[in-house]
């Protein structure tokens, strides 16, 4: 009995579902897009002011790390007390409500943390926080 040899069909990738999804996403984003330029074309006469300030985003809080050996690190840079005061005064001048997070090592001398708090007071920083970690019983 002779064997029938059938030619193997090349597998084909059906792209129809993927194209459908791409078109659906395209339609979704086109419908969901807000056309800001169209909204600005209305004939609206905006009021004028002489003391306008440009909008700025809020600055990130300044994180002050105090290590057990007394080093003060801000943004990976070791600072002295005077340099920290200068940086905080500069930040306060840019944004009056500048936030500061003080992260003191549990083994650090409390005197060093008190010095950093005094520097914050001299720089007129009122929005500061002391970082703590919850004990395993509180978690």
Can you tell me about this structure?
This protein is α/β, with parallel strands linked by helices. The chain has a domain at 62-130: 2-Layer Sandwich (Nucleotidyltransferase, domain 5), CATH 3.30.420. The protein is built from four helices and five strands. It has helices spanning 16-32, 36-40, 81-94, 110-122, and strands spanning 62-66, 72-74, 77-79, 99-104, 127-130. The chain has a five-stranded mixed beta sheet. Strand 4 (99-104), helix 4 and strand 5 (127-130) form a beta-alpha-beta unit. It is elongated, with a radius of gyration of 31 Å. The mean pLDDT is 83.
Give the SSE layout.
Layout: H1 16-32, H2 36-40, E1 62-66, E2 72-74, E3 77-79, H3 81-94, E4 99-104, H4 110-122, E5 127-130
Parallel strand pairs: 1-4, 4-5
Antiparallel strand pairs: 1-2, 2-3
Helix pairs in contact: 3-4
Which features characterize this protein?
35% helix, 15% strand, Nucleotidyltransferase, domain 5, elongated, 139 residues, alpha/beta, 5 strands, five-stranded mixed sheet
Number of DSSP E strands = 5
> What CATH architecture label of the domain at 62-130 applies?
2-Layer Sandwich
**What is the molecular shape?**
elongated
Q: Helical region count?
A: 4
Q: Could you list the spans in which at least 5 consecutive residues all have pLDDT below 50?
A: none
In which order are the strands of the major sheet placed?
3-2-1-4-5
Beta content comes to: 15-25%
Write a brief structural summary:
By secondary structure, the chain is α/β, with parallel strands linked by helices. Helices cover 35% and strands 15% of the residues.
